[in-house]
UniProtKB/TrEMBL annotation:
Name listed for the protein in its UniProt record: N-acyl-D-aspartate/D-glutamate deacylase
Stretches assigned to the Amidohydrolase domain: 46-210, 368-490
Organism: Streptosporangium minutum
Entries under InterPro entries matching the protein: Amidohydro_3, D-aminoacylase_insert_dom_sf, Metal-dep_hydrolase_composite, Metal_Hydrolase, Metallo-dep_Hydrolases_sf
GO molecular function: hydrolase activity, acting on carbon-nitrogen (but not peptide) bonds, in cyclic amides; hydrolase activity, acting on carbon-nitrogen (but not peptide) bonds, in linear amides
Length: 507
């Protein structure tokens, strides 16, 4: 027997939830060719996995690598955790489909602190063109959700109202085209502009053509408002018949999990992703701007910030740490009160100045109200739920990002398997690989078996750990040194090989 790559002597976690078994894995081309005792087999590349586990490549169900997936530092951060696929187009805002330069510019500018600036694309941009740009240009696979906010802006601009029947028809045509070009679902960001102005009727209409692919939503409320958010989610699911997937589902488990269970008992197909941290991260404008300032109209928002008094909520100040402040990088990593004191102004005035000077581009890490001992127990309970899939919500923009992009999956494989016992390794392979592959229609991925795509990692289960912290967020994880994407080694000895076999995945 001869293979291109042979992974020898490891304990295979095949992604089905079955117990690990000792086996070799032979890879030919971009596919797994054989799994078993491959005695006498030869290969151009041999990886000794003795004492380690062999798993299907992990799928990050919520990543903001839309622009930065091309960055080798981001690829290394993901691969060192065993992540081989990013699901992009999250929270209703990304680069395509944009039929005008204005739409592309809006999506880029409004979410610059989240998605970054695309290194080569410019508007107009179709989903087909965006996916073609990812294909074989990075070490990671990419899958893409149609961003509702971008589509809405393309049709309606910054309008703060319900869509007319004609406008819904125009948006629906863009959804249908995007799906035909390879999108794996539809996303909304109902706390961001302009998605926040849509109602359930509009969103349900756009979900109609999904055909089993998921409607993925940043809900209209989390934590104490999760009941309101989930009521809208289930309303949309009933109206459209779509499968639904809730992004970064966080808050008190005693409130959140019964909402999921009730929906599933009602016959609705509901899943969710979450990350194992108590703090969040987003754009400063979403956290701080009062609702009367039109965030989707940047020029008008800046005009109002310059001319009108703002009744800021001072309870926010201690919750905000700056992650991305172009032009005032010295503030990155500082809490808002500390940065304001350093600048010699009151926190409200400093916040106003930062929003104006960055043209709403600033980003922040935010403490959530549920942070504390109860919050940690809620995180653990939510991870254990069978509807859970792994998502880092990784944001890689700025000098001091949230550590989740560098550590979420390693934290789940280390702390939540080895230390707390929330999962077995077999269960981890389901939550982080096979279940996400099914959810996003990525057939042929998420399992270790012949015929499957050869996205494979070799894991040292005794040492895998996240090392990224809020103080040092860009610290790489440990415990994953060898990773293949489409049969090609992309991480060897813990270092990038320079290969870029990542595919733009289509359902």
């Amino acid at each position: 027997m001869s293979f291109d790559v042979l992974i020898k002597g490891g304990w295979v976690l095949d992604g089905t939830g079955a117990p690990a078994f000792r086996a070799d894995v032979g890879i030919t081309g971009d596919r797994i060719a054989a799994v078993g005792r491959l005695t006498g087999a030869e290969a151009a590349t041999v990886i000794d996995a003795s004492g380690r586990h062999v798993m299907p490549g992990l799928i990050d169900c919520h990543a903001h690598g839309d622009a930065l997936v091309f960055d080798p530092e981001v690829q290394l951060a993901a691969l060192r955790q065993g992540v081989t696929t990013f699901v992009l187009g999250q929270d209703g805002l990304s680069f395509a489909p944009a039929s005008t330069p204005e739409t592309f510019a809006y999506a880029t500018r409004y979410f610059a602190a989240v998605n970054g600036t695309h290194p080569s694309a410019d508007g107009p941009l179709s989903v087909r063109e965006l996916l073609a740009g990812y294909d074989r240009a990075t070490a990671l696979n990419t899958a893409y959700l149609l961003p509702h906010g971008t589509i809405r802006y393309d049709v309606m601009g910054a309008a703060e109202r319900a869509a007319s029947p004609g406008e819904r028809a125009e948006m629906l045509a863009r959804v249908e085209r995007g799906l035909s070009e390879g999108a794996v679902g539809l996303s909304t960001g109902l706390e961001y502009a302009p998605g926040r102005y849509a109602d359930a009727e509009e969103i349900a209409a756009l979900c109609a053509p999904l055909g089993g692919l998921p409607y993925v939503t940043h809900m209209r409320g989390y934590g104490a408002l999760a009941g309101t958010g989930m009521a809208e989610v289930t309303d949309i699911a009933r109206r459209s018949g779509a499968a639904v997937h809730v992004s970064h589902y966080h808050g008190p488990a005693s409130t959140l999990l019964p909402l999921v269970d009730e929906a599933r008992l009602d016959g609705l197909d509901v899943t969710f992703d979450t990350y194992p941290y108590l703090r969040g991260s987003t754009i400063l404008a979403m956290v701080a701007l009062p609702s009367w300032i039109p965030a989707a109209d940047t020029d008008r928002a800046l005009e109002l910030l310059e001319s009108e008094p703002v009744d800021w909520d001072p309870a926010l100040w201690r919750r905000i740490t700056f992650s991305h402040v172009p032009g005032a990088e010295w503030a990155e990593g500082l809490s808002l009160p500390v940065a304001a004191a350093k600048a010699g102004v009151e926190p409200g005035e400093f916040c106003r100045r930062i929003l104006i000077d960055t043209r709403l581009e600033a980003g922040c890490v935010t403490a959530r109200p549920d942070e504390g001992p109860e919050g940690e127990e809620s995180v653990r309970a939510i991870l254990r739920h069978p509807g859970h899939t792994g998502g880092s919500d990784g944001i890689y923009v700025g000098g001091h990002p949230h550590p989740r992009g560098y550590g979420a999956f390693a934290r789940m494989l280390g702390r939540h398997v080895r230390e707390t016992g929330d999962w077995t390794l077999e269960e981890a392979a389901v939550h982080l690989a096979s279940h996400p592959a099914r959810r996003f229609g990525l057939a042929g991925r998420g399992l270790i078996r012949p015929g499957q795509a050869a996205d494979v990692l070799v894991l040292d289960s005794g040492t895998v750990s996240d090392r990224a912290t809020y103080a040092a967020p860009r610290t790489l994880a440990t415990g994953v040194d060898d990773v293949l994407v489409s049969g090609v080694p992309v991480l060897a000895g813990g270092e990038l090989t320079g290969a870029t076999p990542g595919r733009a995945l289509r359902p």
